[in-house]
Specification:
The protein is mostly beta strands and 308 residues long. The protein folds into two domains: 135 residues, Sandwich (Immunoglobulin-like); 118 residues. It contains two helices and 18 strands. The strands form three sheets. Strands 10-11-12-13-14-16-17-18 form an eight-stranded antiparallel β-barrel. Strands 2, 4, 5, 7, 8 and 9 form a six-stranded mixed β-sheet that branches. A three-stranded antiparallel β-sheet has the order 1-3-6. A hairpin with a 4-residue loop joins β7 and β8. It is elongated. 31% of the residues are buried.
């Protein structure tokens, strides 16, 4: 009797499974890799430049050399779009130009004049320290379009940003002005988050002991030197090609008066723009008593030069 029941149940299940299988109508497109389309992307060959030189802003350019992925669809042209932010919101982008894809690789470049036209300003309105992002929109010969908004990141491991792909959907441009031999002089304090000086006070900045360096002890401790003696002079280093600042670890200020002990500048970054006379620094501090204090900004404007 059990064998008969089992046979009936088995046949019923077999009929149910067979009757549920689709033999016509639409099939799930994800069921086969053959149903997926072929995309396209650009591979970075090299970075041509990441900096706009303010001294020749109209002709100075940034850009990259790229080639198309050999396994993707053929690329017809690439549009370059500019933004004053790195936001992927394409409503904030402004079209710079279209570049036809010809040959084995192409250069995607933007000069200051093209940037200014795209975003609707004059080249005189481009300021040192300003950063711009350029988004590449790829158009294939079949009419498809790819950019950062329809390519995956997978938490940094995907096509857009993944190290295994070296894809080039974005490049950047920073406005700099090369450093001259000296920026020594009298400065007005624009911002001092460490509060050694009040906003509006004047401080004297001198040349450092080596070329392309400045001694900013006139600002830190600066006007507070009566209660905060100098331990070592605080020296900033400037990259002469870009004006980018770095700071070596330096024990520079004695804050025993405020029960913090010796203060150390552990690192620093920023800009020294000789073309505008502006020092814009962010320096990480640590106290002998209390440890890490975080980063503090110091912004100074040279009095002989009006800010742009």
């Amino acid at each position: 009797m059990k064998k008969i029941i089992y046979s009936i149940v088995f046949c019923s299940l077999l009929f149910a499974v067979s009757s549920c299988k689709k033999t016509d109508g639409p099939i799930n497109p994800l069921s086969s890799i053959n149903n997926f389309g072929v995309g396209s992307y650009l591979i970075l060959n090299k970075t041509i430049s990441e900096n706009f030189n303010l001294n020749s802003i109209a002709s100075s350019s940034v850009g990259v050399t790229v080639h198309q992925f050999s396994g993707g669809e053929a690329i017809d042209h690439v549009e370059i779009w500019a933004s004053a932010s790195s936001d992927y919101d394409s409503t904030k982008w402004r079209k710079v130009k279209s570049v036809p894809y010809e040959g084995d690789s192409i250069n995607l470049t933007v000069n200051g004049a093209e940037l200014a036209t795209a975003i609707g300003i004059s080249t005189d309105s481009i300021k040192p320290g300003a950063a711009y992002t350029f988004f590449n929109k790829i158009f294939t010969k079949s009419g498809k379009q790819y950019d950062v908004n329809n390519t995956g990141t997978n938490d940094g491991s995907g096509l857009n940003g993944g190290p295994n792909y070296n894809a080039s959907f974005v490049f950047t441009g920073l406005v700099i002005c090369p450093y001259t031999s000296s920026m020594a002089g009298t400065y007005t304090v624009i911002k001092d988050e460490w509060q050694d000086n009040e906003v509006g006070q004047t401080v004297v900045i001198t040349d450092g002991p080596e070329p392309n360096t400045l001694d900013i002890s006139g600002a830190w401790p600066g006007n507070s030197i009566a209660t905060l003696p100098i331990i070592n002079h605080l020296i900033i280093k400037i990259d002469p090609e870009t004006g980018v600042v770095s700071v070596d670890e330096t024990i520079f200020e004695d804050d025993t008066f405020y029960e913090s002990g010796a203060i150390t500048a552990t690192s620093g970054s920023g800009y020294a723009f000789s073309c505008t006379g502006k020092l814009q620094l962010s320096i990480v501090l640590s106290a002998e008593i209390g440890g890490d204090l975080g980063a503090y900004r110091l912004i100074l404007q040279k009095i002989e030069q009006a800010p742009l």
